[in-house]
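User: Second chain of the day. Same drill as before.
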Amino acid sequence: MIEAYLQSAKTFEFRVTIEGVHYSVLTAYLRVQVGKIELGFPGEVLRDKIVVTIPALQKFVSLALDRTYKVRLEVIGGGFYLVPWEDSIVFKPSIAVKNVEVVNEKTPCIVLKRRSV
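Assistant: Same format as last time:
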């Protein structure tokens, strides 16, 4: 299982050896299945690897956090459709401060000290 954060991009690098077709005619996509919808992210196909970046999704989609989604790598070209990798992905929230409660009404005192060099 893979973890990703909605607020930041995540890059996947797949080491792949595909024989019988030149890599320059291939296209690749990382697909994330969200219910009846699939999100597709194009990949860069290189000689011995495929690199795909999922951008920060917070502004584009509303995904349930901590829920597992199916994810797969698709490679298409030369008359073939291949799925060399499948797994699951969980989107996590970035660290955030929520529900701050004032327990003492006195003004908090914050002291910053400069270190001597």
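The radius of gyration is 21 Å.

User: Great, on to the next one.
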